């Protein structure tokens, strides 16, 4: 969005309180959604739960195309549509709710840096695994991505998306990485997160912030998604404080509200 | 004793030992960790590789990409992060990710995509250091690579438009510079009194932006207002690179 459009949206956002019928759109949960999109969607849901804002999750096969930026999830609040965690956090802030107001400047810098770390390493690794690892692509991704569409559209869309993701991987230098190197990067990222979390309940001690929501979204999805092999979730399971962190957020924010879609047990 | 380590990288100018961010990161890290590097500046002879610069060569190893080179140096016991705690190590990774996601697109844009800058400064500089006829092709390819990287990571599929992305990437870069400035505060380096990997990365990304003279300078102007970051770059240049300043 251009600067003017964003300022305009913020103005409008500030004018109205959070409505009861806010909805979050993502792809179909059972058959279509992929690991990386599920992680993003869960992160946004966790964030909104932490802010105590009600949200209804709606699954649509064409969620990706409905989104203003082409990425899921997006929320429909009042008569505005905002996609991706970053802009959603800004939007929610314009409405007067924020999780990171209590942080000082240095802590805010750290929070942003760690969020970029998750995006840079975890999200890219998830995309790599889904779209560049032949085994996963063949067995899981292609079938899931194209599942709502008839032949030959399902194949065409899947190949198009794969080509797009591969182009991106090549541009950022991940094109030549092997799966082992990617898994090592994931390990390094988890180690950094584990060291930063330490023995605290949340990353910035007592109160969760958007960083906690983002980390929870990704780690929880990695731990609970069935892939061709368990290497990715094994990397996360090595760090017991991260497992405890995920369980804590799941219990605190998802089970209490009886959300059926997210009460998957962590084994 | 350590085998001789040779680093191939782009040369210097405007008071910097190298104008290329990645080369500068490696050079700075080598100085901080005390690794004896023999620096081979790429000139316009046909000797030496031009792709994938910077490249570290030892007797039987060939390492490219700054992250891998730094890892290699650490394994050779040249470790600038020796005194960091585990949490500081984690912070290093996070801040490097912040630099790559938020600052790098705007730096690439300033050097390689903004036409005034590219055609008057960047292209002639690089072309003068590449032998003909590669000098006609390689800078263009590097520019396209930079544009690609910006659009693919920040643009919106399926139609990638630079206009929409430009405002956003500069805004993110300015925010990133502000965050770095806040984090640095009044300390000499990011983690105490001795420089570490993070200092090498920040120096590598900021110094070219700070020193190279461009016609279109909005990001540079913003950086110059953050006096502690400028002081940080100048300090490192004076303490570690005083004797090996390249010429323009």
Automatic annotation (TrEMBL), chain A:
This is Metaxin-2. PANTHER family: METAXIN RELATED, METAXIN-2. It is found in: Mitochondrion outer membrane. The keyword Cell cycle does not apply. Its main location: mitochondrion. It holds the Pfam family Tom37. The lineage of its organism: Eukaryota, Metazoa, Chordata, Craniata, Vertebrata. Residues 187-249 form the Metaxin glutathione S-transferase domain. Residues 41-162 form the Mitochondrial outer membrane transport complex Sam37/metaxin N-terminal domain. Belongs to the metaxin family. Gene3D superfamilies: 1.20.1050.10. SUPFAM superfamilies: GST C-terminal domain-like. Keywords: Membrane, Mitochondrion, Mitochondrion outer membrane, Protein transport, Transport.
From TrEMBL, chain B:
Keywords: Membrane, Mitochondrion, Mitochondrion outer membrane, Protein transport, Transport. InterPro entries: Glutathione-S-Trfase_C_sf, Glutathione_S-Trfase, Metaxin1/3, Metaxin_GST, Mito_Protein_Transport_Metaxin, Sam37/metaxin_N. Coiled coil: none annotated. The keyword Mitochondrion applies. Residues 173-236 form the Metaxin glutathione S-transferase domain. It comes from the Eukaryota. Its main location: mitochondrion. Residues 23-142 form the Mitochondrial outer membrane transport complex Sam37/metaxin N-terminal domain. The keyword Protein transport applies. It is found in: Mitochondrion outer membrane. Belongs to the metaxin family. This is Metaxin. It comes from Ceratotherium simum simum. The lineage of its organism: Eukaryota, Metazoa, Chordata, Craniata, Vertebrata.
């Amino acid at each position: 969005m251009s600067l003017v459009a964003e300022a305009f949206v913020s103005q409008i956002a500030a004018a109205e309180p959070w409505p009861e019928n806010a909805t979050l759109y993502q792809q179909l949960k059972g058959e279509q959604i992929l690991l990386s999109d599920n992680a993003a969607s869960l992160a946004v849901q966790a964030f909104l739960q932490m802010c105590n804002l009600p949200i209804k999750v709606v699954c649509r096969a064409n969620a990706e195309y409905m989104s203003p930026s082409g990425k899921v999830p997006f929320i429909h609040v009042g008569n505005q549509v905002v996609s991706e965690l970053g802009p959603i956090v800004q939007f929610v802030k314009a409405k007067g709710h924020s999780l990171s107001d209590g942080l000082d400047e240095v802590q805010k810098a750290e929070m942003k840096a760690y969020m970029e770390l998750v995006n840079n390493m975890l999200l890219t690794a998830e995309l790599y695994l889904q779209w560049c690892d032949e085994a996963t692509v063949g067995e899981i991704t292609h079938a899931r991505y194209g599942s709502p569409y008839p032949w030959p559209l399902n194949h065409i869309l899947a190949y198009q998306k794969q080509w797009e993701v591969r182009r991106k991987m090549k541009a950022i230098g991940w094109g030549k990485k092997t799966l082992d190197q990617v898994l090592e990067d994931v390990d390094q990222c988890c180690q950094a997160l584990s060291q930063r979390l330490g023995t605290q309940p949340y990353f910035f001690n007592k109160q969760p912030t958007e960083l906690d929501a983002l980390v929870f979204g990704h780690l929880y999805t990695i731990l609970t998604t069935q892939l061709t092999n368990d290497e990715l979730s094994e990397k996360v399971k090595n760090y017991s404080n991260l497992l405890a962190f995920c369980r804590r957020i799941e219990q605190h924010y998802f089970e209490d509200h009886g959300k059926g879609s997210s009460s998957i047990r962590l084994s | 004793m350590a085998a001789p380590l040779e680093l191939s990288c782009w040369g210097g100018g405007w008071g910097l030992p190298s104008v290329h961010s990645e080369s500068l990161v490696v050079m700075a890290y080598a100085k901080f960790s005390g690794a004896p590097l023999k620096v081979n500046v790429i000139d316009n002879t046909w000797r030496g590789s031009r792709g994938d610069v910077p490249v570290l060569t030892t007797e039987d190893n060939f390492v490219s990409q700054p992250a891998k080179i730094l890892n290699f140096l650490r394994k050779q016991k040249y470790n600038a992060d020796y005194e960091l705690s585990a949490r500081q190590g984690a912070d290093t990774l996070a801040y490097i990710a912040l630099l790559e996601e938020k600052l790098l697109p705007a730096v690439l844009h300033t050097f390689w995509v903004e036409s005034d800058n590219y055609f008057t400064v960047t292209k002639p500089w690089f072309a003068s250091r590449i032998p003909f006829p590669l000098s006609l092709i390689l800078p263009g390819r590097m520019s396209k690579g930079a544009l690609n990287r910006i659009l693919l990571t920040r643009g919106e599929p399926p139609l990638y438009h630079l206009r929409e992305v430009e405002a956003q990437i500069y805004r993110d870069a300015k925010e990133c510079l502000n965050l770095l400035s806040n984090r640095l505060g009044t300390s000499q380096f990011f983690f105490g009194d001795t420089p570490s990997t993070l200092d090498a990365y920040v120096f590598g990304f900021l110094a070219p932006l700070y020193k190279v003279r461009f016609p279109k300078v909005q990001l540079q102007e913003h950086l110059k207002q953050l006096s502690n970051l400028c002081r940080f770059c100048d300090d490192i240049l004076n303490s570690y690179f005083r004797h090996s300043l390249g010429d323009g």
